[in-house]
Each structure stands twice: as structure tokens, then as C-alpha cells.
């Protein structure tokens, strides 16, 4: 597997490589596909955990191009998992639409780690969008007894149809973000401003556009006093 200098660096860091095979493709919305893969031994070599992600390799203008994706429904016994693709211009989206069943795809496992805090949080706040929906679902499934407030940004009208594993005790807020992720940042901070410390969630999980993730993290830490130990934030995509 040769994928340029990025892959070389990952190998130095201990990355492991696998070759997947495309088994199925399902359209969830016109701009959101779910692909099923044979895992090529990846799951048996890994410790499966909530929000687990891998790197997938594509080609763009003759050059290697890698993107990170969260695993959906990993099944070690069957050796399969799903990956959701939010469609937008780019090599990954093109491959997800056009690749024939049986097509191989190279994957690299390196860097994914997450564990539910102990003791388990009693209140959870989640901020995400279409790109992080699989990770949100994984997190909610792993914490079935922890009620969550979920701010979910819609970057396109059809994002309303993306499945979310919200439970009866959860409070799901759908935020229109057609003009950008600032609406999501503003919605979260405006609601939490002035809330007493005792009423703040004891775990906050943020996974939106990278610059918006940084802005929201700064506000949560500096303006709202959310402790570093309670905040888990990762940029999931970059605005063009």
C-alpha cells in the first residue's frame, strides 16, 4: 500500500493497513449514502470503541487523498461494518457514488481512541451535524442511561432525514446551518450562558466543522467555565 508521505508518517506512528471490499450501498438521503464493507481483518485486529474511526484512501488528480470516517454497526463476527458518506464535491464522495460492488478500498487504523468516562456522566451535551452523526449515534448507544441535549446542525434540507439514535429522555434541538456553522455555535452558547454550574452537563462532546469546533471550545472553556476534563472536541470537516 503506497499512499505518499502522509501514509509513511502514519506507519512510523504504528498504523496498520487493511484492504476493504465494498458489499452494499444504500441511499439514506439524496446527499447521504451508507456503504457496507467487508473489513479485511480490521475489526479482529482492533479494540472496538464508541466513536471509532478509520482513515480511507482515495485518489484525486493522481495523488493519494485520505479522509477519516466513523464506523457504523461494526460486526466482528461477520467481519463487516458500514460507513456513512455525506456527499459533496470531492474524491471520497465520488468513490462512494461510483464504485462498483466488490471494489477494493484501502484503510488505515491509527489514532482512534475514546472511552466513556468513569463514573459515567449523568448529563450529556452533544453538538454535531451530518458528518458526525455516526459518531453521535455510537456515543448515545454507549451511554443508554445518560440523558442528552443534542444540538444537531442541518447543512442541507434533507439532513432532517439522517437517522439519529435519540432516546425518549433526550432533548434534540435541530439547528438550521445553511449559511454556515456559526448558527450552531450561537445556539449552544446562548442557551448555556448564565446556567449555574450545578445545571451544566458533566460531559460535553463537540464534533462539527473544524474552525467552528475551535470557536465553540474556546467559548465553553473561557466564557462558560466548562472544565477541560469534561470537554471532548474534534473538528470533523473543514469549510471550503
Q: For the residues shown, what is the average pLDDT?
A: 89
* CATH C-level class of the largest domain: Alpha Beta
Strand content bin: 25-35%
Helix content: 10-25%
Shape: globular
What is the CATH topology of the largest domain? Answer: Rossmann fold
Question: What is the string of SSEs from the N terminus onward?
Answer: HEEEEEHEEHEEHEHE
CATH superfamily of the largest domain: Nucleotide-binding domain of ferredoxin-NADP reductase (FNR) module
Structure report:
The protein is 22% helix and 34% strand. By secondary structure, the protein is of the alpha/beta class. The protein has two domains: 105 residues, Elongation Factor Tu (Ef-tu), domain 3 (Beta Barrel); 110 residues, 3-Layer(aba) Sandwich (Rossmann fold), CATH 3.40.50.80. The strands form two sheets. It has a six-stranded antiparallel beta barrel. Strand 3 and strand 4 form a beta hairpin. The chain starts with a helix and ends in a 7-residue tail after the last strand.
Amino acid at each position: 500500500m503506497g499512499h505518499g508521505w502522509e501514509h509513511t508518517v502514519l506507519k512510523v506512528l504504528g498504523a496498520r493497513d487493511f484492504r476493504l471490499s465494498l458489499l452494499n450501498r444504500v441511499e439514506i438521503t439524496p446527499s447521504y449514502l451508507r456503504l457496507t464493507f467487508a473489513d479485511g481483518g480490521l475489526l479482529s485486529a482492533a479494540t472496538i470503541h464508541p466513536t471509532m474511526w478509520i482513515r480511507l484512501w482515495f485518489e484525486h488528480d493522481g495523488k493519494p487523498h485520505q479522509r477519516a470516517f466513523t464506523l457504523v454497526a461494526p460486526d466482528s463476527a461477520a467481519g463487516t461494518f458500514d460507513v456513512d458518506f455525506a456527499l459533496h464535491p470531492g474524491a471520497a464522495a465520488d468513490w462512494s457514488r461510483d464504485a462498483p460492488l466488490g471494489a477494493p478500498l484501502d484503510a488505515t487504523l491509527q489514532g482512534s481512541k475514546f472511552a466513556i468516562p468513569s463514573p459515567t456522566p449523568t448529563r450529556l451535551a452533544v453538538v454535531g451535524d451530518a458528518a458526525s452523526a455516526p459518531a453521535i449515534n455510537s456515543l448515545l448507544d454507549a451511554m443508554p442511561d445518560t440523558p442528552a441535549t443534542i444540538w444537531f446542525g442541518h447543512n442541507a434540507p434533507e439532513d432532517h432525514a439522517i437517522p439519529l439514535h435519540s432516546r425518549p429522555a433526550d432533548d434534540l434541538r435541530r439547528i438550521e446551518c445553511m449559511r454556515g456553522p456559526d448558527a450552531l455555535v450561537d445556539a449552544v452558547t446562548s442557551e448555556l450562558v448564565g446556567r449555574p454550574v450545578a445545571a451544566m452537563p458533566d460531559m460535553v462532546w463537540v464534533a462539527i466543522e473544524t474552525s467552528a469546533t475551535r470557536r465553540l471550545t474556546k467559548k465553553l472553556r473561557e466564557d462558560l467555565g466548562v472544565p477541560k476534563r469534561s470537554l471532548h472536541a474534534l473538528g470533523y470537516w473543514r469549510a471550503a
